């Protein structure tokens, strides 16, 4: 069975808690807070002010520049504030706060549930619609999708890869989407193939989701979808990483940074993002909602909610029976790459595929020992790096040496820290090293530009 | 009880691996060999092993607690492993006070001088053993004291008593015996070597027990196949090539003899695979293993010592930093 070439780990997938919970539509909140940055790139500019009436799906944040994304109101009502508030990590973000009045949608949005397959738009028209709808990668990276689809001059896309891997433990939102909204995914794939002018698309799904593989295969046959195939991949973390997935599916490895997927002829798009593309292009619907998993083994109930953005995490947790007692980590995302949330009233945004609750005893930070040079981190690193060395160099502040040893290649998957028998916080230090080195590289580039 | 939210960077889960578990696995993997040596050599084998373990742990504790005035880490069981391996490299008749000196050198000089676990450039147990071999050559190559007559009796094995110690200077074990008397080579009984009726250092008397332990370590992913296969494969190929050159008649050049005799298996599975003294990448591990195999065979066939495993591992330990420098893992996206 296909998989990526080097490294990787096999954490318990813990998907049993929520994988059989069908998607439920979350009731509308009384109020939402919409951060003006929910993507990689420049923050959007709010184009509404306090007191403005907005409709569901109305543009409220305008993208600034190419690498940026539009932001739409997920509910209808009155803007009560445009100000800076802390997000889930306590970082200050410009947010538009809207008080709900009913649920009145923009008129041009098609809200019927019928699948609309026919699409005659040109690639440029499709990309424009994706851009207008504010679509970003819903797998977690939040990279603006229209940028990905805009193949630079002189380069050619050969294959579209749809990421249905969901290798992150606990999360099941992509899985439920594949099971319940498969038709939308396949039409979305056709549209994406059209947008980047390729004849072949591969949906990569790990072997621990056989139901999704079977269902999508059956839908492809039934619907006569040409050029779309489903590829079962060996279950192995971090297969959902873009570079790992491309290597697993095509056998081609993207060169070290700053090379992009298009350099090996691939464009990768997550299954949930594909649904958003379908809705934007065929239904005129901007990205205002997504499926979010609420999971954890201590929770009374687990859910997969189809919910509007801007709802606080606390609402989801209430539906799950509240947080368990004692020490708890609340994660935006899963346990490998998710970020700890310190403010449960902060809003859920585009990149949040799930809220995972882990009790203190299941998320230990053991006592640090000495590095015993067991090389487990070297074997586990999917980028072919030497985590023990990069971590040590960062600890010693040897930034030049960290750069020489390619610390910027790190994808922060956490395999190294996961495997370390001495409980060394390898990734914590590598992150510091990577950020410092990247700052240094940018400073050098800026200095060279001046000359 | 209230809910308390706390935060830390990802990853938020850990695989559960610990130094203590790894070392515990090594101890478990050594138990079969210890059991056979206790069965064949008697209670003294257990006594010597106990002395070695106790003194290694005690010295580590005393040095960390009173000399370095820091946290003690004897709970990670690495000193237990060093003690066991040291004992396994000694003849059963060794006086107990020599064992204690060996432990002091192993832990004090071999390990703590360099900063403790993970920082030592040379395998501590080997450091202790090589020191003893040079300081107490007579006691270290005495293969009769404490050894039951059945095992050392030449008649039982047709003038061959089985195996050897790792670098024995003289004695009644297989490697030196055959080295000095090639005509005896035809009498080597491989079955006895395999099932524990061979004389030699305590841990080496039963090849099968060592292989079992090695397989356990592989199964538990404590070690990878690279070092043992490179060491043993190189030795076998080396012996076969020399054997071909000599017409293939001498048992001494038979690959199987070299793999079963002396410290080959103990060295390949348990000593050469020591984490801090072996390379970090699979490619480096293979170079390191091949180096050990070649040096061992050169010493065995043409050197002054009948066995060269200890020295070979020691020399390649010294080469490990260099191997680490030049054998980098393959960077993703590069040819």
What does this entry look like structurally?
The complex is a heterodimer of chains A (451) and B (335). Chain A is α/β, with parallel strands linked by helices and 451 residues long. Chain A is 29% helix and 19% strand. Chain A is built from 13 helices and 17 strands. A six-stranded mixed β-sheet of chain A has the order 1-14-13-17-15-16, sandwiched between helices. In chain A, a hairpin with a 7-residue loop joins strand 13 and strand 14. In chain A, helix 3 (173-180) packs parallel to helix 5 (210-223). The mean pLDDT of chain A is 94. With 335 residues, chain B is an all-alpha fold. Residues 153-171 of chain B have low confidence and may be disordered. Chains A and B meet through strand 15, strand 16, helix 9, helix 12 and helix 13 of A and strand 1 and helix 1 of B.
The low-confidence parts of chain B are 153-171
The largest pleated sheet of chain B is described as: none
Name the shape of chain A in a single word: globular
Largest interface: A-B, 71 and 43 residues
Structural class label of chain A: alpha/beta
Judged by helices, strands and strand pairing, the structural class of chain B is mainly alpha
Please give the count of helices of chain B.
15
Concise structural overview:
By secondary structure, chain A is an alpha/beta fold.
Label this structure with key terms.
heterodimer; A: 451 residues; alpha/beta; 6-stranded mixed sheet; 4-stranded antiparallel sheet; 13 helices; B: 335 residues; mainly alpha; 15 helices; globular
Break the fold down into its secondary structure elements and pairings.
The complex is a heterodimer of chains A (451) and B (335).
Chain A: E1 23-25, E2 31-35, E3 45-46, E4 53-54, E5 59-62, E6 71-72, E7 77-86, E8 92-100, H1 123-132, H2 145-149, E9 159-163, H3 173-180, H4 182-196, E10 201-206, H5 210-223, E11 228-233, H6 242-250, E12 266-270, H7 271-283, E13 289-295, E14 303-308, H8 313-319, E15 326-332, E16 339-340, E17 354-359, H9 376-380, H10 387-395, H11 399-404, H12 415-419, H13 426-450
Parallel strand pairs in A: 1-14, 9-10, 9-12, 10-11, 13-17
Antiparallel strand pairs in A: 2-8, 3-5, 4-7, 5-6, 7-8, 13-14, 15-16, 15-17
Chain B: E1 3-5, H1 19-41, H2 43-67, H3 78-88, H4 96-111, H5 124-135, H6 137-140, H7 149-152, H8 174-180, H9 190-195, H10 207-219, H11 226-245, H12 255-260, H13 264-271, H14 282-302, H15 309-326
Helix pairs in contact in B: 1-2, 1-3, 1-10, 2-3, 2-4, 3-4, 3-5, 4-5, 5-15, 10-13, 11-13, 11-14, 14-15
